[in-house]
Specification:
single chain, about 190 residues, mainly alpha, two-stranded parallel ribbon, two-stranded antiparallel sheet, 7 helices, 4 strands, elongated
């Protein structure tokens, strides 16, 4: 009889341990964060946002090439030394504008992608959307890159106005006497 009570007690104890152990299993999913990731490089290469950025940068490049061409016309009336100085100064200015405009375009594109990723995150009840370069391993289905590319299909991005570049004669250089050594007579100025 003592053996039956002991076996019964062991059985009840084992069942209780199993019930307690399994009772947390249904809670496991509720406490975990839902995480997804995006391949930003792929989004920039394949989405309409990337195409819009490329088009905008091509338009900027055309403006800068036109300014360079206009400046070259001003060089013909200059001495060789003045031409060299003018070319160097103008190239420096145009390169700085090119770099700044490309950075601005990228920032605007990333902001648009981030906004759309946030909308996707909220509508799909995802806790976090990360950049794929930060992911070492993930379960299948966590990559939302293609979904985000589809979602961005009709999004239009405003990159702002193209830079306005004018090539003018440098009035200070024109006032110097013909005998004095002259500096750069052309001046490239940039405005938005």
């Amino acid at each position: 009889m003592k053996n039956i009570k002991l076996n019964g007690l062991k059985y009840i104890s084992a069942v209780c341990v199993m019930v307690i152990g399994l009772s947390g299993c249904d809670q496991l999913g509720a406490n975990q964060s839902k995480v997804a990731y995006v391949d930003i490089a792929k989004v920039l290469n394949e989405s309409s946002i990337g195409k819009q950025e490329t088009k905008h940068n091509q338009d900027i490049k055309a403006v800068l090439l036109k300014a360079e061409s206009d400046a070259k016309e001003k060089y013909t009336a200059m001495s060789e030394k003045q031409q060299q100085q003018s070319r160097e100064a103008d190239n420096l200015t145009l390169n700085q504008v090119w770099i700044a405009e490309q950075q601005h375009s990228r920032e605007v594109s990333i902001k648009a992608i981030t906004e759309e990723a946030e909308n996707y995150r909220a509508s799909h009840k995802i806790d976090y959307v990360m950049v794929s370069t930060s992911i070492l391993a993930a379960k299948e289905g966590a990559d939302i890159t293609n979904d985000l590319i589809k979602q961005l299909e009709k999004k239009k991005v405003n990159y702002g106005d193209l830079p306005k570049i004018s090539v003018t004669d440098n009035p200070v250089a024109n006032e110097k006497s013909a005998d004095a050594p002259q500096e750069d007579k052309s001046d490239v100025s940039v405005a938005h």
